[in-house]
Amino acid sequence: MGTEKMNRRQLVAIATGAAAAGATMGTTGAEAYQGNMERALSSLFDALASLREASSNKGGHRVKAMALVQQAIEQTQSGVEFADEHGGGGAR
After folding, report:
1. To 10 degrees, what angle do helices 35-53 and 2-25 make?
2. How many of the other CB atoms lie within 10 Å of CB of 34?
């Protein structure tokens, strides 16, 4: 099972990297790479994957945590999009 767990985590990391690359490939001059936000997204996706792999005997707290992490992912993505649309961004 340890190998399966690592493979799932690697798949999540690959998917996250691909999403981040896709988000930055279509940028214009006004848009800038947002390293801190991208790293936050990566961490949130890792957290969501770990929560999904955890056992379900948590009295509903695991499920609530997954929903909150998903909400954090959506808000972080919205922040990146807003900054891109309004000439924001950050240092590479």
Report:
1. 150
2. 24
pLDDT digits (tens, 9 = 90+) for 24-82: 454 444 557 899 999 999 999 999 999 999 999 999 999 999 999 999 999 999 999 99
Q: How would DSSP label each residue in the chain?
A: -HHHHHHHHHHHHHHHHHHHHHHHHT--TT----HHHHHHHHHHHHHHHHHHHS-S-STTHHHHHHHHHHHHHHHHHHHHHHHHHTT-----
pTM of the model: 0.63
- Distance between CA atoms of residues 17 and 15, nearest Å: 5
> For residues 33 and 90, is the Cβ–Cβ distance under 8 A?
yes
Count of CB atoms within 10 A of residue 3's CB? 7
Predicted confidence (pLDDT) at residue 6 exceeds the cutoff of 60: no
